[in-house]
Automatic annotation (TrEMBL):
Species of the source: Komagataeibacter melomenusus
Protein name: Winged helix-turn-helix domain-containing protein
Domain HTH crp-type residue range list: 104-152
Length: 199
């Protein structure tokens, strides 16, 4: 029986190679340099790197893994699901679970950064943007994610909230980078909330 093969043109291959090279160049930027850039520039670099990585490995050439994949710790994920179910109704457990699922589906490769803005999370979850901080704060207290503030030039206040997944829970990208990140991050299983319900 004949097998159908998806053909890739020379132009498509060339574009994918160029995207891969550009993504590699951006990944060479040191954390020290990035620290001194305005927050807006760091976010733009992060999103550009992710877009280039996607262009270098488009869904049509990923075979059994269309859209890529995220590695999960089964034990940690099950513990998080149980902890979310144990939340009181005032803590919006259904929306917290939806947020957790969205986090897993939108991770930047090799940093674990969540690539959705507050407004995008609110739209996907179906809640007001003001509630996203509370929902994500619940995941942060559980140790599932951590939050950073990035200053944006011309913007007052503490800066934009940027979220990262705990590498003990899930990861998208190099296992070597994941191991290095995990060595510096506390496992959420050590938190009381995940060991015995609400604290």
């Amino acid at each position: 029986m004949a097998q159908i093969v998806r053909l890739t043109t020379r132009q498509q291959r060339s574009g994918q190679e160029e995207a891969a090279q550009a993504a590699e160049q951006l990944s060479l930027l040191s954390e020290e340099l990035l620290k001194h850039l305005p927050g807006e520039a760091r976010i733009a670099i992060s999103r550009a790197t992710h877009a280039l990585q996607k262009a270098a490995r488009p869904d049509t050439t990923e075979g059994l893994w269309p859209g890529g994949f995220t590695m999960l710790s089964r034990m940690q994920t099950a513990a998080i699901w149980d902890a979310i179910r144990a939340l009181p109704s005032d803590d919006r457990p259904h929306q917290v679970r939806h947020a957790f699922d969205l986090v897993l589906l939108n991770l930047r490769q090799d940093t674990g950064e969540v690539l959705l803005t507050r407004d995008q999370l609110a739209e996907e979850i179906g809640c007001a943007p003001k509630h996203v901080s509370t929902i994500m704060g619940t995941l942060e207290k559980m140790g599932v994610i951590r939050r950073e503030r990035r200053k944006i030039e011309g913007m007052q206040g503490r800066g934009v909230a940027v979220y990262f997944i705990n590498p003990h829970v899930a990861w998208n990208g190099s296992l070597d980078v994941r191991k290095a990140q995990a060595a510096e991050t506390r496992s959420p299983m050590q938190l009381e909330l995940l060991q015995g319900g609400a604290s």
